Amino acid sequence: MLVTMPLLPTLLHALQPVQAWLALRSYTPLIWLCIGLQVAALAYMQAFHRQVDAALAVHWLGARRQPRPALLVNRHTGAIMRANAAACALYGHTPREFCRLHVHDLSAEPSETRLALREGHSYAPCRLHRKKDGAVVSVAVTAEHFMVAGRPYLLAYMCDIRAAAPSRPGS
User: Fold this and answer.
1) What is the pLDDT of residues 63-109, one digit of tens each?
2) 13-26: b or e for each residue (b if 16 or more CB lie within 10 Å)?
3) DSSP codes, 23-70
4) Neighbours of 39 (CB within 10 A)
5) Residue 138 forms beta bridges with which residues?
6) Which of 78, 93, 124, 130 would give a disulfide with 141, using CB separation of 3.0 to 4.6 Å?
7) Which residues contact 75 (CB under 8 A, 6 or more apart)?
8) CATH topology of domain 65-164
9) Is the dihedral of CA 70, 71, 76, 77 positive or negative?
């Protein structure tokens, strides 16, 4: 007789105590197998995420100390995963706020940003980005693309064009 799991409590309630004990005992290996598979899957996913985090940390290690603003971005989703102190100073967001944003949220030209992400551009000479206070800043973006566990990521380095431009005498 095939009994589905949702019917098991009803069946056990209806049976005599000895029959209930025998029925429960027959399902015990199946229950333990399901629990074992869930534990194994959870352990595998945790190990996988630790490996991905370690690989991303290797790429991020040099970027976090850069004097230029840098963002670690999931290229598939556009989600910002990390931001260095220079990026926080330029845009006015905290590192936690950056982790809730996408690169499209920073861009004053979101459609061009989506296209650049999709096509994997490595350099954008002039992009308009929006700071936290709404001010628009012109930046040059250089991107370093890499793969971790089959997923595309990028390190984006920004340079404020107006701050980097040399001032002319008499202006």
Assistant:
1) 777 788 999 999 989 999 999 999 999 999 999 999 999 998 999 99
2) eeeeeeeeeeeeee
3) HHHHHHHHHHHHHHHHHHHHHHHHHHHHHHHHHHHHHHHHHTT-SS-E
4) 10
5) 128
6) 124
7) 117, 120, 145, 152, 153, 154
8) Beta-Lactamase (3.30.450)
9) negative
